[in-house]
Amino acid sequence: MTVNPTGPTKKPAASADSQTVQRRPLTPYMRAVGAVAWKDLRAELRSREMITSMVLFTVMTVMVFSLALELDAEARKSTVVGVLWVTVVFAGTLGLSRSLAAEKDRGSLDALLLAPVERSALFFGKVIGNLIFVLLVALVLMVLLTVLFNITLIEPLLVLIVILGTVGFTTVGTLLSSMSVHARARETLLPILLMPVMMPVLISAVRASSAILDDLPSSEWIAELRMLAVVDVVFLLGAYLLFGFVVEE
């Protein structure tokens, strides 16, 4: 029987270090999403380019419609939903076209794509940032329409419709913006790509909003609410699956 004079053998420290490295996550998914969203919010708070242009466009549009329909109360009531969603869509498109374009112009888009995170995390971070901006503009718009059109729009159900509509809008808008960001006429190309895809969201949102403002029973708008929820889920899943291929191209 042979006894080791140096005592019991010890495992090399390198193996313990390798196990520690293997257990350490590369980049947590939700942390990456939050980092991208916070980066966009902080950059916008410094420059205020996108949110300023969106709010100015919203105010000018509401003022034009308010002056045009100043003497006709019935026309205001029948057109307020159209004014709401037309302004949200066009002001949101203005912001979406600047979102990834600013990254492209600064050269930071390639750095984001080279970051050691999943591409879908970059996408959802961008969606969250854009969603906050569009919802802020929608809130300002609803307050302006309530004051100038003398029609109460700050209602829980209507706010829910606006949230569901903007979720679908910003999801597909962010995806299409990432497709058109490399084009020369990207500001013109994005609305052309976005409008046909947005039709299911717009139709359901306008019908549900009109029914809620007219105090119709829930049977008249519950189907449109469900349609909005289904379309949002489909858009989110589709964008999650397609974003990696879109940015690779």
Number-wise, the strands total 0
- Structural class estimated from helices and strands: mainly alpha
Q: What is the typical, i.e. mean, pLDDT?
A: 81
Tally of individual helices: 9
Could you give a short account of the major beta sheet? none
Q: Please mark out the parts with pLDDT under 50 across 5 or more consecutive residues, or reply none.
A: 7-26
Give the strand content: under 5%
Multimerization status: single chain
What distance lies between the first and last C-alpha atoms, to the nearest angstrom? 68 Å
Helix content: over 70%
Give the count of structural domains. Answer: 1
Shape: globular
Order of helices and strands: HHHHHHHHH
Q: Could you tell me the radius of gyration in angstroms?
A: 24 Å
Task: Describe it.
The protein has 249 residues and is an all-alpha fold. It is globular and about 55 Å long. The protein contains nine helices and no strands.
Features:
globular, 0% strand, mainly alpha
Architecture blueprint of SSEs:
Elements: H1 13-23, H2 29-47, H3 49-68, H4 73-106, H5 108-114, H6 119-149, H7 156-180, H8 186-213, H9 222-248
Concise structural overview:
The chain has 249 residues and is mostly helical. The chain has helices at 13-23, 29-47, 49-68, 73-106, 108-114, 119-149, 156-180, 186-213, 222-248.
